[in-house]
Design brief:
Layout: H1 3-10, H2 14-25, H3 67-82
């Protein structure tokens, strides 16, 4: 992401960005938004722009493997998250 785009995003609120994305995707609707009132905990801090790396993990049942296997899998998860492509 270049600096000009980053600075533009800092001047826009989240609903405006979400609306623009929906328009571009052709998916205008009223399902993917926050229904409650959102309050800024520190409005004087200004806008924050970034990216998120997400993953889907299962946590319903505890793992049955030994501690070393669980730790190795967890560390692999952290490594992959850290190495994910950046904007």
């Amino acid at each position: 992401m270049n600096t000009d785009l980053l600075n533009l995003l800092k001047r826009c609120d989240t609903p405006t960005i979400c609306n623009a994305i929906e328009v571009v995707q052709g998916k205008r609707g009223f399902a993917a938004f926050t229904h409650g009132t959102v309050l800024a905990s520190a409005p004087e801090a200004g806008a924050m722009v970034g990216h998120a790396v997400t993953a889907k993990i299962a946590g319903v049942t505890p793992p049955e493997e030994d501690d070393a296997t669980i730790r190795a899998r967890r560390m692999e998860y952290y490594r992959r998250m850290a190495e994910a492509p950046k904007p």
